[in-house]
Amino acid sequence: MGTRRIFLKRAGFSTLALSLPFAETLSAMNFERDDKILRVAIMGLGSYGTRVAEAMVNCQRAKLVGVISGTPSKVETWKQKYGIPDKNCYHYDNFDQIKDNPDIDAVYVITPNSLHKPYSIRVAKAGKHVICEKPMALNAAEGQEMVAACKAAGVHLLVGYRMHFEAKTQEVVRQQRAGEFGETLFFQGLSGFRIGDPTQWRLNYELAGGGSMMDIGIYSINGARYMLGEEPTWVTAQEVKTDPVKFKENVDETITFQMGFPSGAVASCLSTYSLNNLDKFFLNGTKGFAEMQPSTGYGPIKAWTNKGPVEAEHITHQTTQMDEMAAIILDGKKPMIPVDGEEGLKDLVIIDAIYKAVKTGEKVMIS
Ligand code: NDP
C-alpha cells in the first residue's frame, strides 16, 4: 500500500472525500515518510490492550491489524472500531495458524502474567515477532526459555517498557550518562497503587506469579537500572502484609528492597498494592540530582534536576513505544535504553533474588 493511501486511511478520509488541493497539501506535508509499517495483532483485549490499541491509532510506523481474544463480543467491537478483517481474528486455541497469515508481522501479548511465556513461545514458533508486556515472565528460568525460543525462531522479542521511550526519562538518563550529576550513588524508587477487587487476576498467584512486585515494583527495579546505568550485584528485601486475606500466600502486598551496584551506588525501593500516588524516582549524585514524580504513570511525567525543570512534550507513551518498536524490528534501530528479551530477563533475575531475600531474610548475591 502506498504511503499516500496509508495516511489517508489513518486520517479517516477516503480519497474521494477530499478535494484535490487539500489532498495535495496533505501529500506535501505527510507523504514523504517510508512506507514500512509494522502490522500488529494484539492478544488480550483487556484494560491495557485497549489503551495500546487507542494509542496506535496515532502511530506512524505501527498499525493494529489483528486480534487474539477469548471473548467474541470484544472481537466484534474491535473489528468495527479498527476495521480488522475476519481473517486476522484468532482465539487462544487456534492462533498458531497465524503462521500462515502474511498480513501480520508481530503479536503484542497483553494477557495476565503467567500466560506471557506460553503464548509468546507459540507466537515465536509461528514465525511472528513477539512484543510482550511486563513482567516478561514469572521468573528468570521462564524468561530464558522465551529468549531462547525467539532466538531459535529468528524473531524479535521486545518487552513493553514504555518508559524507555519517554522523552523526560530519556533526558534524565542522557544527563546521567554525560556525568552531569557526577557519580550517581543513590537511587530511590517508590512504586505503588491501592489495588481494588480482591477477585482480580493480579491477586491470583497462578495468573500473576506474585503480587505488587510483579506488577508495579518492577518499575522501581527497572528504573534503578536505567537511572544508575549499572546492574545490581546484591539485594536485600523485607515484606510487610497488613491483609493476609486479600494478599494470600506468595502474593506480596508490600516489599521494601535494597540493591547494591558495582560502583558502590545503592538503591532503596518500595513496592506496594496499598498506597495510591506512589510513583517517584530520585537520583542523587556527587554534583547534582534528578527527581521524577510521577515517574512511570501514563503521564505527563514531571521531572526536574538541580538545574531546574526538565521540559519535553508529552506524547502518549504507547504511541511512541509502538513507533519505536517498529523502527527496532523493521530498521534494526538501537533504542537508547534496551527493550529486548535480555533486558526483560535482567529484571526477572532481580525479582527472583528479591523473593529469595524476602523468604530467607538474607542478602542475595546476583552473579
Ligand atoms: P486485564 O485483566 O484488563 O486484561 C487481560 C486480558 O487478557 C483479558 O481481558 C483477556 O482478554 C485476556 N486473558 C486471557 N486469559 C485470561 C485469563 N485466564 N484471565 C484473565 N484474562 C485473560 O489486564 P491488564 O490489561 O491490566 O494487564 C494485562 C498485562 O498488561 C499484564 O501483564 C500487565 O502487567 C500489563 N500491563 C502493563 C502496563 C504498562 O504500562 N506497560 C499497564 C497495565 C498492564 P480477552 O477477553 O480478549 O481474551
UniProtKB/TrEMBL annotation:
This protein's UniProt keywords: Oxidoreductase
GO molecular function list: nucleotide binding; oxidoreductase activity
Domain GFO/IDH/MocA-like oxidoreductase: start-end pairs: 174-290
Domain Gfo/Idh/MocA-like oxidoreductase N-terminal intervals: 38-161
Keyword Magnesium: no
Keyword Oxidoreductase found: yes
PROSITE patterns documented for this protein: TAT
PANTHER family from the UniProt entry: OXIDOREDUCTASES (PTHR22604), TRANS-1,2-DIHYDROBENZENE-1,2-DIOL DEHYDROGENASE (PTHR22604:SF105)
Family that this chain belongs to: Belongs to the Gfo/Idh/MocA family.
Name the record gives this protein: Predicted dehydrogenase
Source organism of this protein record: Algoriphagus boritolerans DSM 17298 = JCM 18970
